[in-house]
Amino acid sequence: MRVERGWIGVCTMGESFGRVRFALFGLLTVLAINVPMTGPATANDEAGFQRWVSEFRAEAVAQGVPAALYDEAFQGVRLNPKIVELDGRQPEFVTPLWEYLDRAVSDQRIANGRAKRVEYAQTLEAISARYGVAPEVLTAFWGIESNFGSNRGSFNVIEALATLGYDGRRERFGRTQLIEALKILKNGDTTPDKLVGSWAGAMGHTQFIPTSYAAYAADFNGDGRRDIWAEDPTDALASTANYLVEFGWNGEEPWGFHVALPPSFDYSVADGPKFTTAAWADRGLVLANGGDLPRGFSDAQLITPAGAGGPAFLALNNFRVIMRYNNATSYALAVSLLSERIDGRPARTFAWPEGVRLLKRDEREELQRGLTQLGFDTGGVDGVLGRNTRAAIRLFQKTHGIAPDGYATADLLEKVRARLRGEDINRPVTRSEVREMQTLLTNLGFDTQGVDGIPGRRTRSAISQFQKSRGVLADGEPTITLLGALRLADRAQ
Fold it and tell me: Is the pTM higher than 0.90?
């Protein structure tokens, strides 16, 4: 599913095999449409929904939607309780990355992908010639998004988006997408009976939301319509190719490399700076098979999606372009690995940390609260392990001599719980670290009356004041945990 900047959590249609959900974070702000607020929806608030439909008609007409078309599109449209349920549902389970990949890049999907690659060879080659996106890559997107067209969704898109537009959680997204869906009908690209898709309004073989359809869909077969809903996948595949190229796809580069890291590697650089592959090689990285890392590529970013106990990859620009399509590392890996297998390349073998237990949502929220209480600010408590939470985890890990991979596991949660119980999981601080604490405390407005490296009464008092300001147990102890919290607070001010 395409995601504009903003966010939406939804199953990719082709992922019904695993009921896997992602919180997808894009990067464009969806434009708000100002219509009267009717209040949060409930599954049975049909009368309120119909009032909203009547009120929204004027806004749609003002946006260029013919009134007669609006009335036709909304014939029989009702508040859909299933969409309200799906929009509000929070999964209480976690599918580890390795299990997701086993399903996404299954033997059956590889076989089906190879068959589709042959069946649509002429079409795929023609699209590839125009856009520079390899046929196996397009086939992989097709497979992951809709299982090669067999699962394109069955929700009335107008009803789905109107329900989201009326519901209090996501009205901005729903209203914006609804206007664009109505314009699709206005432009004659399809008819109301064919405008079907996912519960969140993603449509066609490769699951475009309406705003992405408006910006990137392509009429490749030249029939005058950008028909991503047809049984023929040509326009949908070309639309995906066009989307990828618009965001910088380079047909001359791979997606990345599976690499091995040297001993005592600093995992804090993962998900961080981009270097040339030559620079990474100078840091001791080699290919996972022991070969030399190719040195001719720029902007390579190290990713360790299963932490220090799992495989490492150098992701190039094309990998990040895939993540523009769906902002999840697991999704980008699935597309990348499936494309390789469809192309006939051998299966890769990865050493996943299968004995590691990942966290359920309530545990992720507990981790965020615990880290914040200890002074490692996660930027909020929402159960989503985003950039801020991973940064807080890394700082906590580095503070306590753990490989700073930013990976949230049950073991990490136990360490946080132990610290909250007051158990000593820290090494002693050095005199130079006490001096750093005193400097940071003073910078933050907690006067230690000098920087001498001695944790005396005034320094302990300043520490206690800082701890109280952070909602942490004010014991006045100069620990490594405290130093990490001070560093984070100093960087944030």
Answer: no
